[in-house]
Design goal:
Rossmann fold, 10 helices, about 25% strand, 10 strands
Length: about 240
């Protein structure tokens, strides 16, 4: 579904990514591991059109992405839920969600279906749908951010550190929701600080270090890999 080949990108004069190759297959959950500063966020921002690549190519579902504006990439079926949530804090939960479906706004029946699917995935959001999003707990705000991305009806959902700053129990709930999204047929590309939990729900994984892919393989193999266990699993 997604192929990244020889991708180099960065900011101003600084390169962050160096000849990165990754793939994400249809129907699978792919995890990107790496320490802070390894390039995970830059990779995701480049895929979703927020950073222009310097070299390399990105192809999604048969379409080349470099040069396309971000809204066209969303319309093509790729949604990006960024690190930090970036909600409209004073707006009600439901309005935050509906804004996520802006590119599908002409199909009101489908938007209503998508909203019901989000509430089915996160029942707590239905109870709090009229509350300002900024009054919710951190975990609930993360659910709004994920739900907002789902409102664009994506075939591939990019999630950047969805458990950042959350308590262990809430992290477990959020990652279970991510696994359910994947079981519902949406491919997921996930960057996650909780490497062990992420690998347990993933099909395949890639490890970034200093902007380069240094390891890749099936998630189960990465869980057993001594380098991964020492660097990311505390073993």
């Amino acid at each position: 579904m997604l192929t990244v080949q020889g991708l180099s990108a960065g900011y101003d004069t600084a390169d962050v990514l160096h000849s990165v190759d990754i793939t994400a297959r249809s129907g699978e959950l792919t995890v990107i591991l790496g320490a802070n500063g390894s390039g995970k966020t830059t990779l995701f921002r480049t895929i979703s059109g927020l950073v222009r690549p310097r070299e390399g190519d990105i192809e999604f579902d048969g379409r080349r992405l470099p040069g396309l504006p971000a809204d066209r990439i969303v319309k093509a079926g790729l949604a990006h839920c960024p690190e930090g949530r970036h909600l409209f804090a004073k707006m009600p939960v439901e309005k935050n969600l509906i804004l996520g479906g802006y590119v599908r706004r002409r199909d009101r029946a489908r938007l209503r279906e998508l909203l019901e699917q989000v509430y089915e995935l996160f029942p707590m959001l239905h109870e709090k749908r009229q509350q300002p999003a900024g009054t919710l707990s951190g975990g609930q705000q993360q659910m709004v951010a994920i739900g907002r991305a789902l409102m664009s009806d994506p075939a591939l959902l990019i999630l950047d550190e969805p458990s950042m700053g959350l308590a262990p129990l809430v992290t477990e709930q959020v990652l279970e929701a991510v696994a359910q999204i994947n079981r519902n047929g949406i491919a997921v590309l996930l960057a996650e600080q909780n490497a062990q939990a992420a690998l347990r729900i993933a099909h395949r994984g890639f490890v970034l270090a200093e902007g380069r892919v240094v390891l890749s393989g099936d998630a189960a193999d990465l869980l057993r890999d001594p380098t991964v266990r020492e660097a990311y699993l505390g073993v």
